[in-house]
């Protein structure tokens, strides 16, 4: 027997023209990591040039555990701010640094024209260690947000965890922590990646019930293979649905086919989120443009005239 829910889903699928009539009213942002080599730097800048005509709200650049990529992050963010018209956002963490050191980094960003910080607690510098705040440093992300607010009128994004941060005792405590970050002055929250739209919708309902009305942007990670999905998901406590493994089955030696499957999975996730009222998306690009560009195209996002001319 076909359930009522399955029938309703089938009617929606048959009655809609597969993305073709989306209004193009979605807004996107992209995340990159600082390159380690000259070749990786070329790939990064090719990706930025490919994605910039889509008119992203901002692009962010990550910051390694313990501030291990501090200089490379700063150089990448500064170059984006200097050479493009895209608002650049710099990740900043509390790990392995005093308040004075972090404040100096934030001042340097402000003086370089960067007006957006992604404020994070950060991970321990050595895998497997329990997080501990640095002596004389910021205690956590909420404390960091409050400190940044005292320095400059930054736009501040923080992290949200639809499936609970691994260090949180439970979902309620995790939502309380998100509320503290927003109350401290954060502008919005960007979620950890997840694999099913219902995960985000349940979380959206839970934070609304907790009295949070700030913008919560779903983080989308188009990934190239199932092994990387499992590895990254295990690190951040994200559930991997069994159907995903079945979709990647037999594709280990077919990278082009894997990319098509990956794009399909991520695009379908975005379609369901869009149908549920989501209009802002944040893509974890892994410094590759193709998948994110294709998904944005399916969402009805086209190159902006001015940006297209600049890129040419």
Strand-helix topology:
Blueprint: H1 4-15, E1 27-32, H2 38-51, E2 59-61, H3 70-83, E3 88-93, H4 99-111, E4 116-120, H5 141-151, E5 155-160, H6 171-183, E6 188-193, H7 197-209, E7 215-220, H8 226-236, H9 242-248, H10 255-275, E8 280-284, H11 290-298, H12 305-311
Parallel strand pairs: 1-2, 1-8, 2-3, 3-4, 4-5, 5-6, 6-7, 7-8
Describe the structure concisely for a colleague:
This protein is of the alpha/beta class.
Task: Tell me about this structure.
- With 312 residues, the chain is α/β, with parallel strands linked by helices.
- The protein has a single domain, classed as TIM Barrel, CATH 3.20.20.
- The chain has helices at 4-15, 38-51, 70-83, 99-111, 141-151, 171-183, 197-209, 226-236, 242-248, 255-275, 290-298, 305-311, and strands at residues 27-32, 59-61, 88-93, 116-120, 155-160, 188-193, 215-220, 280-284.
- Strands 1-2-3-4-5-6-7-8 form an 8-stranded parallel β-barrel, surrounded by 5 helices.
- Strand 3 (88-93), helix 4 (99-111) and strand 4 (116-120) form a beta-alpha-beta unit.
- The model is unreliable at 306-312 (pLDDT under 50).
Task: Give descriptors for this structure.
312 residues, alpha/beta, TIM Barrel, eight-stranded parallel barrel, 12 helices, 14% strand, globular, disordered C terminus
């Amino acid at each position: 027997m076909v359930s009522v829910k399955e029938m309703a889903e089938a009617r929606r699928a048959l009655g809609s023209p597969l993305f073709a009539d989306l209004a193009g009213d979605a807004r996107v942002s992209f995340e990159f990591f600082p390159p380690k080599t000259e070749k990786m730097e070329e790939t990064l800048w090719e990706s930025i040039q490919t994605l910039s005509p889509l008119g992203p709200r901002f692009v962010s650049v990550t910051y390694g555990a313990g501030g291990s990529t501090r200089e490379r992050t700063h150089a990448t963010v500064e170059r984006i701010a200097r050479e493009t018209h895209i608002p650049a956002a710099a990740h900043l963490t509390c790990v392995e640094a005093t308040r004075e050191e972090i404040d100096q980094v934030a001042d340097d960003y402000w003086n370089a024209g960067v007006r957006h910080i992604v404020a994070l607690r950060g991970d321990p510098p050595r895998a497997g260690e329990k997080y501990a705040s640095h002596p004389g440093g910021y205690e956590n992300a909420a404390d960091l947000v409050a400190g940044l607010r005292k320095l400059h009128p930054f736009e501040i994004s923080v992290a949200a965890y639809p499936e609970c941060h691994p260090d949180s005792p439970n979902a309620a405590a995790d939502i309380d922590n998100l509320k503290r970050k927003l109350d401290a002055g954060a502008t919005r929250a960007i979620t950890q990646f997840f694999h099913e739209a219902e995960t985000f919708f349940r979380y959206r309902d839970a934070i609304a019930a907790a009295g949070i009305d700030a913008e919560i942007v779903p983080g989308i990670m188009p990934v190239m293979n199932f092994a990387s999905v499992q590895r990254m998901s295990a690190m951040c406590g994200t559930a991997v649905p069994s159907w995903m493994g079945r979709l990647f089955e037999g594709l280990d030696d077919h990278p082009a086919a894997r990319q098509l499957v990956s794009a399909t999975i991520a695009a379908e996730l975005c379609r369901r989120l869009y149908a549920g009222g989501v209009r802002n998306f944040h893509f974890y690009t892994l410094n590759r443009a193709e998948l994110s560009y294709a998904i944005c195209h399916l969402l009805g996002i086209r190159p902006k005239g001015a940006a297209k001319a600049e890129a040419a």
